[in-house]
Amino acid sequence: MTDPNQISDLFEGSSPSPQPVLTIPEIKILLQQQANTIVSTGTGGPSFDSENPGYKKKDARLNAAFARLGLPKPFPWRSLWDWHGYYAMELPRYQDRRQHIRDLVAAGLEQLAIVEATANIVDPGPEDPDPTWEGVNIRVTGLVAEISSARDKDTWQDVGRRSREILIDLGMLIADPGLVSDGNPVPKGADANAWFDLLLTQRAAGNGKKELRATMRATWDLAQKVTHGDIDHVDAFASAQATILLVRTAQMLFNQED
Fold first, then answer.
1. What is the per-residue pLDDT for 144?
2. 3-class state of residue 253 by DSSP
3. b/e string for 83-107 if b means 16 or more Cβ within 10 A?
4. Distances (CA, A) of 26 to 20, 22, 31, 33, 183
5. Which domain holds residue 182?
6. What is the pLDDT of residues 58-107, one digit of tens each?
7. Do residues 110 and 219 share a domain?
8. pLDDT score at 180
């Protein structure tokens, strides 16, 4: 029987599972959804009580996403009743309420556009994706989302960790025993560097590919540095972009005919 004088049970379940990192397009959608709810409840639409639970959940996600980007909260009201108290005093007309929310949304979108322009990672993915590469492609999408929202050392290092995990997954994906010459040991599946070397030896051999080999092998070192080192946004950006370049180059090499 639980002791009524103990409060430890208050902490059970108080740490929800972390929400996935939202991409900027996803943040824009969530921003517009919140705006629609604010406007509709403030202009004779659904009741506050029916909409408030969903509004508060989205508010927490939206504010966390903006904070991760180093941006202020797009809407100042933590609940729809806070919004009611504000417009009852400041915005008596429906028209004024709609315009005020339009202005807040426009300001939020402008801030997101600035962030988007300063963290524009390019993924030259194939137009017709191979299902074999679906897992790696999903991870690449997550990496793009991560770098677009990274704003401090901890989140920059998260970019390095994601980059390194992608390289390991890539190594396992290209771990084809056919790349190993007769009589040589087969590397472990997670030994990404060894499989990269084998792929390059067979598909990118010769002096004409030495720069490519050097670039691909340096990508792992860069991901390691970003994961553990004293780094900044430039390092994280370089690691993410180099990792994506490595993935697409390895994909091209792996799929080309012998």
1. 84
2. helix
3. beeebeeebeeeeebbebbeebbee
4. 11, 6, 9, 11, 51
5. 131-255
6. 999 999 888 877 789 999 999 999 999 999 999 999 999 999 999 999 99
7. no
8. 87
List, for the chain, all residue ranges whose pLDDT scores fall below the cut of 70. 1-21, 118-120, 126-129, 205-208, 257-258
Question: For residue 184, how many other CB atoms are within 10 A of its CB?
Answer: 9
Beta carbons of 246 and 167 less than 8 angstroms apart: yes
What the block records as the tokens of 4 is 């009524």
CA dist 39 and 167 (Å) reads 46
* Beta carbons of 37 and 84 less than 8 angstroms apart: no
> What domain count does the chain have?
2
Q: Which pLDDT score is estimated for 89?
A: 95
For residues 68 and 143, give the distance between their C-alpha atoms in angstroms, rounded to a whole number: 15
- By C-alpha distance, which of 151, 64, 66, 78 is closest to 110? 66
What are the tens digits of pLDDT across the range 19-35?
A: 566 778 889 999 999 99
Do 142 and 226 belong together in one domain?
yes
Q: In angstroms, rounded to a whole number, what is the distance separating the alpha carbons of residues 82 and 41?
A: 12
What pLDDT does 126 receive? 63
HSE-up of residue 187 (Cα within 13 Å, Cβ side): 22
pLDDT at residue number 223: 93
Same domain, yes or no, for 137 and 109?
no
Place of tokens 């790349």: 179
In single-letter form, the type of residue at position 229 comes to: G
Q: Is residue 13 part of a domain?
A: no
* Structural domain includes residue 234: yes
